[in-house]
Amino acid sequence: MIANYKIILSDLQAILERDPATHTKLEAALCSSGFHAILIYRFCHFLWKHRMHLCARVIAQFARFLTGIEIHPAAKIGSGFVIDHGMGVVIGETAEIGNNVTLYHDVTLGGRKPYGKKGKKSEKRHPSIGNNVIIGCGAQILGPIVVGNNVKIGSNAIVIHDIPDNCTVVNSPAYIIKKSQNKRHIFCAYGIEDGNDKMS
């Protein structure tokens, strides 16, 4: 429980660092629908891990109604997670998200290839997202792909293939426009670096 408390505090701190419209932790706790969704998800995930699946799903549905954000209780989400604005975000059952990830509204971490060769459900259908990733509004990351660390995904991109570390991807279908040699991650809203990300 102490670890969960620390994760929640890191989520609040991340909102302060990445959302210039939020000025205090109290404001984030009271006014951020993204934080409300994450808070309820973390409780639902606890229930899911303790095999109270139906209860977790029912509470998750309530969170979806309350916030407009749908997170499956079985998804795995690291600390420092921020959903900015939030409306329309969907995170599927087998999605995995690393630490210090930022999502904007209408992002989908969706499933593909739901059935194996014998018609049985495959276990991994949703993306795995690395650490320090920014996903712009409207982006669709689909299938059991891997998005590396320090990746920026532009608004409305459709990502259906693995993305290596330290890249910026845009468009539909998404392609790489920039590979960074700098491993140090600097946050930039919506993945836009004040005009420094230019298409080649």
Please tell me about this protein's structure.
The structure is a single chain. With 200 residues, the protein is an alpha/beta fold. Helix content is 28%, strand content 18%. It has a six-stranded mixed sheet. It has a five-stranded parallel sheet with strand order 1-4-7-10-13. It has a four-stranded parallel sheet with strand order 2-5-8-11, with no helix packed on it. It starts with a helix and ends in a 21-residue tail after the last strand.
Topology:
Layout: H1 2-18, H2 25-31, H3 33-49, H4 53-67, E1 70-71, E2 76-77, E3 82-83, E4 90-91, E5 96-97, E6 102-103, E7 108-110, E8 128-129, E9 134-135, E10 140-142, E11 146-147, E12 152-153, E13 158-159, E14 167-170, E15 175-179
Parallel strand pairs: 1-4, 2-5, 3-6, 4-7, 5-8, 6-9, 7-10, 8-11, 9-12, 10-13, 12-14
Antiparallel strand pairs: 14-15
Helix pairs in contact: 1-3, 3-4
Summarize this structure briefly.
This protein is an alpha/beta fold. It has four helices and 15 strands.
Keywords:
5-stranded parallel beta sheet, 28% helix, alpha/beta, 6-stranded mixed beta sheet, 200 residues
Q: Within the largest sheet, what's the order of strands?
A: 3-6-9-12-14-15
Separate helix tally: 4
Gap between N and C termini, in Å?
48 Å
Could you say which structural class the secondary elements and strand pairing correspond to?
A: alpha/beta
What is the percent of helical residues? 25-40%
Shape designation: globular
β-strand amount: 15-25%
Order of helices and strands: HHHHEEEEEEEEEEEEEEE
Kindly state the number of beta strands. Answer: 15
**Which segments are poorly predicted (pLDDT under 50) over 5 or more consecutive residues?**
none
Q: Roughly how many Å is the radius of gyration?
A: 16 Å
